[in-house]
Amino acid sequence: MIPFDVAYYRPSTIEEAVQLFSSLEAKGKRPLYYGGGTEFITLARLGRAFADAVIDLKSLPECRILSVTAHELTFGAAVSLTAIEEANSFPLLTKAAREVADRTARNQITLGGNICGRIFYHEAVLPFLLADSRVVIAGKEGINERSIHEVFQQYMHLSPSQFLVQVKVDAAYSNLPHAHTKRRQQGNTGYPLVTVAALKKDGKLRVAFSGVCPFPFRSLEIEERLNRTLPLGARIASVIEALPSPVLDDIEGSAKYRLFVLKHALLDVITALEGES
Amino acid sequence: MMKCEIILHINGERRSAVIRQADTLLMVIRYLGLTGAKPGCLNGDCGACTVLVNDTPIKSCMMLAIETVGQEITTIEGLRDTAIQRAFVEQFAFQCGYCTPGFVMNAYALTTQKPDADEETIRKWLESNICRCTSYHEIEQAVRSVLAQKKR
Ligand SMILES: Cc1cc2nc3c(=O)[nH]c(=O)nc-3n(C[C@H](O)[C@H](O)[C@@H](O)COP(=O)(O)OP(=O)(O)OC[C@H]3O[C@@H](n4cnc5c(N)ncnc54)[C@H](O)[C@@H]3O)c2cc1C
Ligand code: FES
Ligand code: FES
User: Fold this and answer.
1) Contacts of A251 (CB under 8 A, 6+ apart)
2) Domain of residue A207, CATH code
3) Considering its fold, how many domains does chain B have in total?
4) Is A134 in contact with A167 (CB distance < 8 Å)?
């Protein structure tokens, strides 16, 4: 049971959603945008999240889009991970999305909730980081499109009144050679010990990680090391030296164990892609 | 406390309930006497609370009841003598039975919506539910037997 009252709103336009946020704030309320509700409800029950109003984004047409044109793929923030998996328009994203939580939970978890939520794995963001995607953001300042690299640095840097509307990817990325692996402590559902997603573009490997550090990341320095002409073992050792923060050390896995798993995950992903042209 | 009256469409009937807007769907359907959906972890992990919303399996502990106004909700009480229910009995796919309504709802959606489901699809769907009595093998057999009947 959520131990406090929450007012539920379901606007039907972006403008209405932003306006609602401002007017609730002006009345001294603490509103929160709401996607699938899975994270909010589970954290609120534990007293780890609070809002006295939620603004459901699932009726906003722009947030429900899942479209493919010759040039561009568009993913609405309120689309469920299951819908993304079934559409399969960006195969690397399909692979990343279908390993989050479990199938029934993915019927509810939205893309925006996975990328913008507080649970820090954000596994669905990895393919978008690799594909130099663009994010459409709505807020008091209007609607803006920006590079994902400007906005997602360890987590989505949004002001409370802003929300993610869409993520856009150049269609060319959907056909590139790619690899994805998720290693868990046990079982086939749940959080990663290590997730590695990789794309090969213009003969160069791009890699992004979740579970290794307390935030997902793509690092150009790591990619430069990975693409050197050195034996594979030496490249992987060099990548480990360039991790952007100490390796996660928690109940899911010690830092030492995660490093061990990371080396194997990298080995598999690189081996799968090195032969590709 | 902020209370409001809502009308839910459950198992083909209109049901009225006075709720807090923060109430989960699981709490509200159980309050309405539909106690087939079970509270387990209340955390999205076990699937004991699974119901269908517009035919899609949903963990009702992670959805607000108010979100489902205007949508079709199906609980285990809404399934009568379906192939998957018979298969659960024939294959002895339960022991204590606590997880059974959640598994049946998920398996019902799987077998009706994905009649050509391959092993990978069956595995992916069934991973959403946990059985503490470990009847997994029998549950999978029940699902496979219904899919096999459909293919005949
Ligand atoms: C059972 C379970 C297992 C999980 N397993 C994994 C896993 O394996 N890997 C992984 O990466 N994650 C995992 N997660 C985390 C999960 O992907 C997110 O927390 C997801 O649950 C949130 O999606 P939602 O749509 O339900 O978000 P909500 O609960 O609706 O929202 C979560 C937060 O995100 C914000 N938000 C939602 N949509 C937007 C938007 N469009 N713009 C801005 N802010 C927004 C909300 O304000 C809120 O703060 C798991 C979560 C659960 C419940
Ligand atoms: S009670 Fe809902 S998933 Fe466990
Ligand atoms: S039959 Fe007891 S939990 Fe599944």
Assistant:
1) none
2) 3.30.390.50
3) 2
4) yes
Domain range for residue B98? 79-151
Answer yes or no: do B94 and B131 share one domain: yes
Say if the Cβ atoms of A1 and B23 lie within 8 Å.
Answer: yes
| Segment A165-174 mean pLDDT | 98
pLDDT band at A194 (very low <50, low <70, confident <90, very high): very high
Do residues A137 and A162 make contact, with C-beta atoms less than 8 angstroms apart? yes
What is d(CA A140, CA B34) in angstroms, rounded to the nearest whole number?
43
Q: pLDDT tens-digit profile of A14-53?
A: 999 999 999 999 999 999 999 999 999 999 999 999 999 9
Average pLDDT over residues A78-89: 98
Say if residue A190's pLDDT is above 90.
no
Query: Does the C-beta of B136 come closer than 6 Å to ligand 3?
Result: no
User: CATH code at B7?
Assistant: 3.10.20.30
The answer on B62 and B8 residing in a single domain is yes
Task: Please give the pLDDT value at position B150.
Answer: 86
| Residue B151 pLDDT class (50, 70, 90 cuts) | confident
Q: Name residue, tokens 């579970």.
A: A211
Average pLDDT over residues A109-126: 98
| Per-position DSSP letters for B106-136, written without gaps between them | HHHHHHHH-TT--HHHHHHHHTT---TT--H
Percent of chain B with pLDDT over 70: 99
Q: Cα(B87)–Cα(B84) distance, rounded to whole angstroms?
A: 5
CATH number for position B135: 1.10.150.120
Please tell me whether residues B110 and B67 are part of one structural domain.
no
Judge whether residue B37 has pLDDT over 50.
yes
Examine the domain organization and report whether B99 and B71 are in the same domain.
no
Q: How far is CA B115 from the centre of its chain?
A: 18
Which of the residues A43, A45, A52, A104 would you substitute to probe the B interface, choosing the one with the greatest number of B C-beta atoms within 10 Å?
A104
Q: Are the Cβ atoms of A189 and B61 closer than 8 angstroms?
A: no
Query: What number does the ligand 2 atom closest to the CA of B130 have?
Result: 4
Residue A209 in any domain: the answer is yes
Q: How many CB atoms neighbour CB B56 within 10 A?
A: 15
